[in-house]
Amino acid sequence: MVVGTFKTILLFFLIFTPLTVFSVENQPIVILTTFSEDSISQLVKHYQLYSPETKVSIIFRRTQSALRLLERDDSTDIDIIISSSSVLFHNLEEKDKLQRLKVNNKTPEWLTPHVLDMSGKIAVFAYSGFGFMFNTQYLASHQLSVPKTWQDLSDSQYFQHITMSTPARSGTTSLIVENILQNYGWEDGWRLLMNIGGNIAFISSRSFGVSEAISQGLIGAGPVIDSYAIDNKKRFDYINFNYIPDSIIMPTYIALAKGSTSPQESKKFINFLLAKEGQQLLETTAMAKFSLTQPDRAQNTVLILNRDLVYSRDTLISLLFDQAITEQLHELNATWESIYQLENNSNLAPKNKALLMQAKQYASRVPVTVTQASTKEYLAMFSSPSTERDLTPEVAEEIQRWKMELKSNLQQANQLINQISQE
Q1: DSSP secondary-structure letter at 290?
Q2: If both were cysteines, with which of 33, 195, 245, 253 could 154 make a disulfide (CB 3.0 to 4.6 Å apart)?
Q3: How many CA atoms, within 13 angstroms, populate the side-chain half-sphere of residue 10?
Q4: At 131, phi and psi to the nearest 5?
Q5: Residue 185: which region, alpha, beta or left (left: phi > 0; alpha: psi -120 to 50)?
Q6: Could you confirm whether domain 130-247+313-421 is CATH 1.20.1300.10?
């Protein structure tokens, strides 16, 4: 009797309950992004006006954290990935974490040279450039000129007045650093980065932390992707921005996770961003990126990164930057402050000027040579994205060598500085 009653109730439930209850497509779309909360949330808010029945959840992660999340076996609740980090998508494709994606709008030919080839597994719906964002009130109060080139940021006037993020914490910063190294060469590029590092007041935890610190008047200037600067310029009249000469274009990528449980709804969201309505939102929301109907910036940018170099040494550069600049920032600051004080001494003897030049060379030297950075065997050590928590014994040993050499370099720089000061 009880069994018969149960069957009757179950039959009634199956007949009169809408099929959508059993559809996985009724689940929320889950977006994983490396962008700031404001930029993505505003796009989602407008999409839900277009498709009010769709629920959307957003997960915000740094690039490496996003990759680790997607590598987990229980990452099947992620549907869409949005980022400007080509390295993130390259790693996801290699690990077979993306599915083929057919969209209604193809990437324009003028943007194609700047786009990573993902074999049909990503779409590009926007792009950005990058440069220096600065607070005009801060610069005026500290009598600082407007920075326009990387060499400007290495000038002593900017000591403790700039900030930036790191390649390990920001996919866009990774591309910015790679841009410097490919433009100036490995050795000169690192010399410039170490000199700039000596001027950094603090390291920002994420790329948009740079724009936030500048907008709040905590610091004067720093390198940012242009969308953060454009959004802040709309809100604060004391914020301005300059594109850096010989800088790259950064496309904004979107992809469908292989384990997506809402693929059809996710594709609707992706096609919305590529359609006219979504493209118009890029200018009117905090996303503040160039749309696929705005070719000028991309067409006037000729510098394109060597993708093989980007992918083969991304982990090496992230780890090296953290050891050379992030981890020894205080010591780096102190050394460069002493160098600047001696440079301002117009009475230095020629011998001491030569010693000071040697001190600067030590203070801007990294423990990885250009030969190592271009050798397959050496780069193979760093073939997987890593943090200091999950290093192989071989990489951990190499990093320990870096630490000792970096410490020795600053010690030798300071010995020369003390020698000059005592004469």
Answers
A1: B
A2: 195
A3: 6
A4: -175, -155
A5: left
A6: no
Residues of the chain with pLDDT under 70: 1-26, 73-76, 385-389
Whether 2-127+250-299 shares its CATH topology with 130-247+313-421 is answered: yes
Distance in angstroms (rounded) separating the CA atoms of residues 91 and 87:
6
- CA distances from residue 371 to 244, 363, 377 in whole angstroms, order as listed: 28, 20, 11
Q: What phi and psi values does residue 222 have, to the nearest 5 degrees?
A: 180, 160
3-state SS, residue 72: coil
The domain made up of 2-127+250-299 is a member of CATH 3.40.50.720: no
Amino acid at 352: N
Residues 20/69, Cβ–Cβ less than 8 Å = no
* Pairing mode of beta strands 29-33, 56-60: parallel
Closest CA to 103 of 120, 80, 116, 119: 120
Answer yes or no: are the C-beta atoms of 56 and 268 closer than 8 Å.
no
189: left (phi over 0), alpha (psi -120 to 50) or beta: alpha
């550069």: which residue's tokens?
317
Q: What is the dihedral of CA 203, 206, 207, 212, to 10 degrees?
A: -80
Give the pLDDT score at 7: 39
Give the span between the Cα atoms of 308 and 311, in whole angstroms. 5
pLDDT per position as a tens digit, 370-416 = 999 999 999 999 987 655 567 889 999 999 999 999 999 999 999 99
User: Could you state, in order of their start, the residue ranges of all structural domains in the chain?
Assistant: 2-127+250-299, 130-247+313-421
pTM here? 0.89
Dist. CA 114–CA 107, nearest whole Å:
11
